[in-house]
């Protein structure tokens, strides 16, 4: 299996993503600079976190309109799995690969902490390591993670099992009290209809060893790599 | 020719910054202030574009990049 | 041409005797541009004219020190051909005037200081001091400073792993924002600032120059008055996105051998960077100002030279390497301009539109900067304040809760959750412990990083306070199991022209010197911020110390959290009955008086070496140094971190409030298995280290026999709520 990590000016979780993928994969991931015209033939495309183009205009807007993203959108449409984390999720919604948008956190503040997430939709490729309803722990680190979609979109996401993760407590209870950023329906991550794109605000790549404080991220990447091998 | 694009959040999209501004204004004694919605203004120098082409061009810029129509409305005026 | 009148000279902050010296050096009157250059170069901020005499007395050497003070940052060897490069710097005045941008550009500046030397920054920290919590400006300042620090560091993708925050009325009109950055470089790829190679190109990279921050350096060297808020336009605006690109571009170019010297444009912008590079290299520089990338039209030479626009660097390249370098900077969409060349004239010659607009000798201007031996008076050392002069509180549990929920001790989580403290994937000890720990990427090593200072001790007794600040950072590092390496100091004081303030400075330096020597813990970089006064009231003397230490095996790291039930809790060090300057005295008795806890540097060293060796030998399961609030607060913090309680029995040789809340130095709480506790007791005896068993971990309350019993969740409630409550706008 081969993986590529897309790097924009201002990406800053690109190395973390690379380390996490490589830890599970055992071979190097391709780092693809946004200005490079050709995207190698890969089995996984990761769009990492950061502040692409300084978050100017809107988070992810400028990267979303870049030539490399046009290619990513094409690949995704033909079935290549895409993992879009944090700023990557923002970019993915800007391109229309995923529905909705990410607004400023309801409390107006950047939030960096570990959060409990309830695994909701079933998707062997991305969350096969976890049972539906299980609670996993990934960190968040964002200023604009407040997921918005209109009522109709929201009903479709919920109805079709496309909500991947929800902000919850340690027992899996989903409530306003566990909604860290004001996201509609506590949504932390979603799949596209075809199930080959996962966008999520939390960072699985940050908890990949006991030394870093947890291994749920490692389980996530191990499963992802296995399912694509 | 120049254009001034005004972008605001759609009604129904929560605007916490607007709420914070309203709250701060109340704190300063401006009690009459009701709802506050904030947005942004983008000024574009369009060079020597033909006046007839300008509206369509700016419209395209708005939909393709300047506004995210999932959450934002836009309007623009052309200035000589 | 503007005539240089007495008023203009005074507006530039030069004294009459300093201006006499200008005339002597030039043999003529300066023009306005030249006067502006003298003014910033000789400002307190750039010249250290009041502090130099004393700074020179600090120890700066050790076998592991690669570069001490004088460069952009200090450099220490961390083995395997790698070095840690670090520094702390103040951005106090700008942060008071415009907290978001002031703090943000403070972070930007210190990051540049570190990556200028070839290091990739791996961690940021911040030492913050605000006015009293209920001061009308405090909430606004805390909110702005914290979001500014986060806004810059988060966007750069460099973790902000901790720091410290104090609140005290002495900072009501002068907050302190001290930002520290630590970076990692290869020892054979460290870059310095001395210009060399006659004819070599002088290159400008980064953002364009605008009119921002003109006279920021002189502002940072003047006392505030009520009009200072009018000075807002001089505050620079930061662009962390550009800085991120500048970082990547510089590191990419540094991987080649094209660079001769490099210097960031910080305070006093192009002026100080060009003069420092020329002076260090003993050469001249000629600059054509027409080639400086400019953001605004019609900028004068004066404005170009004094602008403090951010995210800019000055480099000397090897001849013929311009195109290679230009390609890298253009890839990162940054400005790149050859603006001049190195000359053998020893002069700084600036031209614009074909005219010479400044012609100044480099060495006299840089080296003959005024240096003052300002008059000073020693602060009278106060007498200790004995515990038996204070009533023992009826409810010691309630007293502890009061302290845990006080401004000094309450959790800073509200602050650090706004900082990305995990990006880069190497933060193995997050904020909230004694020191943060980040792995050296791709190795088994890790760096422990801390900042500390107890200004109330420094105010009461500067010498003890200066020594304590250094010792506490050493203790913080030790408590993680790291070997302390070196410090950076950020010296924040009031007006040095007042002898009592100068006396505080001299006293703190003396204490720091003694501690650095006793602990083999030299100063490798630093910064001085004077004139932190408003209407004649100075801040508490605040020599903020940033320390770093090395864990050769990151797996040896220790944390403060109680790890398991049934473990033995031990106290390292001795407790006395001096309650002077304690948080207990301030919060419970409402008094700020008496002598701070005494410092015994030999004992400090013995106790610390014992704790560190015990951690590294695997005998310790948790460790925490005892500081503000004393033993009871340290135990509470360990209980909170481990989410489990403890049962403690204290000897009755001291009054209860001293045993629980005295702040004696050189003390730690450690835990161990019952078996290892016996080994520790034997080892301590041999090492002449006071060590006693306090009790056992377990259950969900902190119980001190005959004194108090409170649940861990009650402690958590008061500890976690104070800062969010402070920062919540009423009715919001």
Automatic annotation (TrEMBL), chain A:
Residues spanning the membrane: none
Note the SMART domains from the entry.
GATase_5
What the entry lists under PROSITE patterns is as follows: GATASE_TYPE_1
Q: Give the source's domain of life in one word.
A: Bacteria
Q: Which SUPFAM superfamilies match?
A: Class I glutamine amidotransferase-like (SSF52317)
User: Which EC numbers does the record give?
Assistant: 6.3.5.3, 3.5.1.2
Query: Keywords on this record?
Result: ATP-binding, Cytoplasm, Glutamine amidotransferase, Hydrolase, Ligase, Nucleotide-binding, Purine biosynthesis
What reaction is this protein's catalytic activity? L-glutamine + H2O = L-glutamate + NH4(+); N(2)-formyl-N(1)-(5-phospho-beta-D-ribosyl)glycinamide + L-glutamine + ATP + H2O = 2-formamido-N(1)-(5-O-phospho-beta-D-ribosyl)acetamidine + L-glutamate + ADP + phosphate + H(+)
Q: Where is the active site?
A: 86, 203, 205
CDD domains named among the record's database cross-references: GATase1_FGAR_AT
Q: Where in the cell is it found?
A: Cytoplasm
Pathway, per record: Purine metabolism; IMP biosynthesis via de novo pathway; 5-amino-1-(5-phospho-D-ribosyl)imidazole from N(2)-formyl-N(1)-(5-phospho-D-ribosyl)glycinamide: step 1/2
| Complex formation | Part of the FGAM synthase complex composed of 1 PurL, 1 PurQ and 2 PurS subunits.
Q: What job does this protein perform?
A: Part of the phosphoribosylformylglycinamidine synthase complex involved in the purines biosynthetic pathway. Catalyzes the ATP-dependent conversion of formylglycinamide ribonucleotide (FGAR) and glutamine to yield formylglycinamidine ribonucleotide (FGAM) and glutamate. The FGAM synthase complex is composed of three subunits. PurQ produces an ammonia molecule by converting glutamine to glutamate. PurL transfers the ammonia molecule to FGAR to form FGAM in an ATP-dependent manner.
Q: What is the name attached to this protein's record?
A: Phosphoribosylformylglycinamidine synthase subunit PurQ
Gene that codes for this? purQ
Automatic annotation (TrEMBL), chain B:
UniProt keyword list: ATP-binding, Cytoplasm, Ligase, Nucleotide-binding, Purine biosynthesis
**Protein's recorded name:** Phosphoribosylformylglycinamidine synthase subunit PurS
Q: Where in the cell is it found?
A: Cytoplasm
Q: Which PANTHER family match?
A: PHOSPHORIBOSYLFORMYLGLYCINAMIDINE SYNTHASE SUBUNIT PURS
Give the record's family classification.
Belongs to the PurS family.
Primary location class: cytoplasm
**Matches recorded under NCBIfam families:** phosphoribosylformylglycinamidine synthase subunit PurS, PRK05974.1
> What superkingdom heads the lineage?
Bacteria
Q: State which pathway it belongs to.
A: Purine metabolism; IMP biosynthesis via de novo pathway; 5-amino-1-(5-phospho-D-ribosyl)imidazole from N(2)-formyl-N(1)-(5-phospho-D-ribosyl)glycinamide: step 1/2
Could you tell me what reaction this enzyme catalyses?
N(2)-formyl-N(1)-(5-phospho-beta-D-ribosyl)glycinamide + L-glutamine + ATP + H2O = 2-formamido-N(1)-(5-O-phospho-beta-D-ribosyl)acetamidine + L-glutamate + ADP + phosphate + H(+)
**What EC number(s) is this enzyme filed under?**
6.3.5.3
* Job of this protein: Part of the phosphoribosylformylglycinamidine synthase complex involved in the purines biosynthetic pathway. Catalyzes the ATP-dependent conversion of formylglycinamide ribonucleotide (FGAR) and glutamine to yield formylglycinamidine ribonucleotide (FGAM) and glutamate. The FGAM synthase complex is composed of three subunits. PurQ produces an ammonia molecule by converting glutamine to glutamate. PurL transfers the ammonia molecule to FGAR to form FGAM in an ATP-dependent manner.
Q: Does the keyword Ligase apply?
A: yes
Self-association and partners: Part of the FGAM synthase complex composed of 1 PurL, 1 PurQ and 2 PurS subunits.
What species was this sequence derived from? Sneathiella chinensis
Automatic annotation (TrEMBL), chain C:
Note whether rRNA-binding occurs among the keywords: no
This protein's pathway: Purine metabolism; IMP biosynthesis via de novo pathway; 5-amino-1-(5-phospho-D-ribosyl)imidazole from N(2)-formyl-N(1)-(5-phospho-D-ribosyl)glycinamide: step 1/2
Query: Where is this protein found?
Result: Cytoplasm
Q: Does the keyword Transport apply?
A: no
Swiss-Prot/TrEMBL catalytic activity: N(2)-formyl-N(1)-(5-phospho-beta-D-ribosyl)glycinamide + L-glutamine + ATP + H2O = 2-formamido-N(1)-(5-O-phospho-beta-D-ribosyl)acetamidine + L-glutamate + ADP + phosphate + H(+)
Identify the residues that the record assigns to the Phosphoribosylformylglycinamidine synthase linker domain, covering every copy.
10-49
Q: Which residues bind Mg(2+) 1?
A: 89, 527
The first-level EC class reads ligase
- Residue span, PurM-like N-terminal domain: 70-185, 432-550
- What NCBIfam families does this protein map onto? FGAM_synth_II (TIGR01736), PRK01213.1 (NF002290)
Entry protein name = Phosphoribosylformylglycinamidine synthase subunit PurL
* Annotated ranges, domain PurM-like C-terminal: 198-351, 565-699
**EC no.?**
6.3.5.3
Its organism's taxonomic lineage begins at: Bacteria, Pseudomonadati, Pseudomonadota, Alphaproteobacteria, Sneathiellales
Residues annotated as binding ATP: 48, 87, 489, 526
Q: Which UniProt keywords apply?
A: ATP-binding, Cytoplasm, Ligase, Magnesium, Metal-binding, Nucleotide-binding, Purine biosynthesis
């Amino acid at each position: 299996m081969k993986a590529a990590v897309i790097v924009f000016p201002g990406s800053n979780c690109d190395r973390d993503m690379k380390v996490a993928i490589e830890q599970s994969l055992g071979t190097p991931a391709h780092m693809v600079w946004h200005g490079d015209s050709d995207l190698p033939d890969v089995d996984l495309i990761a769009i990492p976190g950061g502040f692409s183009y300084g978050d100017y205009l809107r988070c992810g807007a400028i990267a979303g309109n870049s030539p490399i993203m046009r290619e990513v959108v094409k690949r995704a449409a033909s079935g290549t799995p895409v993992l879009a984390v944090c700023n990557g999720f923002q970019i993915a919604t800007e391109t229309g690969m995923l529905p909705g948008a990410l607004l400023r956190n309801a409390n107006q503040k950047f939030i960096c902490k570990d959060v409990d997430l309830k695994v909701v939709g079933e998707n062997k490729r991305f969350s096969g390591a976890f049972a539906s309803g299980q609670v996993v722990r990934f960190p968040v680190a964002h200023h604009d993670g407040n997921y918005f979609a209109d009522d109709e979109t929201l009903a479709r996401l919920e109805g079709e099992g496309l909500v991947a993760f929800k902000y919850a407590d340690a027992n899996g209870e989903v409530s306003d009290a566990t909604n860290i950023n004001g996201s509609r329906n506590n949504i932390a991550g979603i799949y596209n209809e075809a199930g080959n794109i996962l966008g999520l605000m939390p960072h699985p790549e940050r908890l990949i060893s006991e030394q870093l404080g947890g291994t749920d991220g490692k389980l996530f990447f191990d499963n992802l790599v296995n399912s694509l091998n | 020719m120049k254009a001034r694009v005004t972008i605001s959040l759609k009604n129904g999209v929560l605007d916490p910054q607007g709420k914070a501004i309203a709250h701060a204004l109340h704190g300063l004694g401006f009690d009459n202030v009701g709802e506050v919605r904030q947005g942004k203004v983008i000024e574009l120098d369009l060079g020597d574009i033909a006046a007839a082409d300008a509206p369509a061009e700016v419209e395209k810029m708005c939909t393709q990049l300047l506004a995210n129509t999932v959450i934002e409305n836009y309007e623009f005026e052309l200035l000589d | 041409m503007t005539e240089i009148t007495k008023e203009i000279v005074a507006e530039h902050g030069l004294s009459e005797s300093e201006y006499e010296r200008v005339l002597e050096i030039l043999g003529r009157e300066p023009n306005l541009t030249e006067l502006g250059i003298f003014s910033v170069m000789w400002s307190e901020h750039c010249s250290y004219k009041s502090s130099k005499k004393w700074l020179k007395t600090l120890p700066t050497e050790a076998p592991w020190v690669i570069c001490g003070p004088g460069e952009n940052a200090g450099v220490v060897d961390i083995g395997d051909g790698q070095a840690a490069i670090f520094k702390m710097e103040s951005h106090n005045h700008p942060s008071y005037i415009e907290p978001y941008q002031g703090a943000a550009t403070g972070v930007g500046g210190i990051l540049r200081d570190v990556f200028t030397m070839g290091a990739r920054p791996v961690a940021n920290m911040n030492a913050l001091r605000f006015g009293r919590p209920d001061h009308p400006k405090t909430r606004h300042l805390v909110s702005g400073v914290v979001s500014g620090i986060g806004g810059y560091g988060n966007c750069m993708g460099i973790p902000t792993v901790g720091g410290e925050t104090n609140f005290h009325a002495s900072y009501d009109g002068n907050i302190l924002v001290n930002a520290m950055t630590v970076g990692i470089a290869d020892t054979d790829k460290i870059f310095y600032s001395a210009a060399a190679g006659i004819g070599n190109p002088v290159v400008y990279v980064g953002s364009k120059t605008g009119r921002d921050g003109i006279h920021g350096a002189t502002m940072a060297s003047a006392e505030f008055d009520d009009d200072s808020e009018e000075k807002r336009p001089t505050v620079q605006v930061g662009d962390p996105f550009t800085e991120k690109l500048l970082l990547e571009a510089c590191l990419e170019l540094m991987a080649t051998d094209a660079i001769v010297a490099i210097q960031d444009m910080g305070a006093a912008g192009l002026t100080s960077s060009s003069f420092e590079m020329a002076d260090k290299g003993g050469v001249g520089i000629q600059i054509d100002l027409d080639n400086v990338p400019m953001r605004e039209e019609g900028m004068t030479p004066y404005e170009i030279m004094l602008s403090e626009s951010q995210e800019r660097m000055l480099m000397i390249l090897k001849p013929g390497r311009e195109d290679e370098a230009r390609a890298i900077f253009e890839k990162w969409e940054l400005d790149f301009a050859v603006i001049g060349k190195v000359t053998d004239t020893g002069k700084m010659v600036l031209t614009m539109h074909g005219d010479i607009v400044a012609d100044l000798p480099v060495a006299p201007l840089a080296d003959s900067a005024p240096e003052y031996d300002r008059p000073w008076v020693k602060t009278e050392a106060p007498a200790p304040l004995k515990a038996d002069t204070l009533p023992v509180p009826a409810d010691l549990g309630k007293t502890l809760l009061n302290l845990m929920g006080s401004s000094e001790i309450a959790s800073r989580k509200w602050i650090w959750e706004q900082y990305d403290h995990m990006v880069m994937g190497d933060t193995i000890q997050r904020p909230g412990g004694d020191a943060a720990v980040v792995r050296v990427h791709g190795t088994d090593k890790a760096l422990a990083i801390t900042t500390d200072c107890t200004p109330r001790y420094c105010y009461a007794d500067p010498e003890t306070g200066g020594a304590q600040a250094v010792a506490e950072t050493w203790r913080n590092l030790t408590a993680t199991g790291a070997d302390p390496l070196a410090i950076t100091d950020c010296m924040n004081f009031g007006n040095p022209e007042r002898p009592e303030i100068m006396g505080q400075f001299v006293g703190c330096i003396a204490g720091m010197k003694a501690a650095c020597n006793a602990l083999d813990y030299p100063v490798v970089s630093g910064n001085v911020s004077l004139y932190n006064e408003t209407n004649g009231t100075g801040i508490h003397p605040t020599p903020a110390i940033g320390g770093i230490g090395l864990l050769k095996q990151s797996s040896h790291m220790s944390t403060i959290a109680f790890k398991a039930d049934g473990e033995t809790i031990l106290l390292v060090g001795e407790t006395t009955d001096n309650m002077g300057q304690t948080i207990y005295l301030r919060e419970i008795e409402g008094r700020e008086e008496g002598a701070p806890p005494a410092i015994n540097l030999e004992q400090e060293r013995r106790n610390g070496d014992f704790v560190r060796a015990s951690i590294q030998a695997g005998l310790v399961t948790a460790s925490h140094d005892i500081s503000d609030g004393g033993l009871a607060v340290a135990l509470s913090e360990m209980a909170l971190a481990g989410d489990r309680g403890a049962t403690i029995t204290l000897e009755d040789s001291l009054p209860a409030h001293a045993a629980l809340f005295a702040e004696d130095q050189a003390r730690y709480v450690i835990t161990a298995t019952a078996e290892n506790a016996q080994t520790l007791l034997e080892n301590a005896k041999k090492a002449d280290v006071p060590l006693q068993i306090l009790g056992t971990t377990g259950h969900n309350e902190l119980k001190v026999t005959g004194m108090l019993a409170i649940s861990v969740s009650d402690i958590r409630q008061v500890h976690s709520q104070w800062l969010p409550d402070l920062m919540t706008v009423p009715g919001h």
